[in-house]
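Hi R.,

Here's the chain you asked about this morning:
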Amino acid sequence: MNESDALSAFAALSNESRLRVVKFLVEAGPDGLSAGDIAAKLGATPSRASFHLATLSEAGLVRSQKESRSVQYTVRFDAMGGLVRYLLEDCCGGNATVRACC
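And the predicted structure, written out as tokens:
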């Protein structure tokens, strides 16, 4: 992950609703959740949930797949791992103190 991608990911995650969506999707695992289920869990309108999902998708943190009449979302674990790796290795230069805490 490069600096630009990391900044995009951090910007997407800096919103309470979007961070909650990522948590929901991590908990759901590889099956993910439908857009409607995510909206219900957030207590948001479908259009509001779609706004947040689009932001996360543009940042490369989630992916969507059309299934029948709904859209299923899953977290991109590779992207989440890349963001953590960026923090530990690139941003913090592999600092031993930072690595020891993780």
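The two ends are 19 Å apart (CA to CA).

Let me know if you need anything else.
M.
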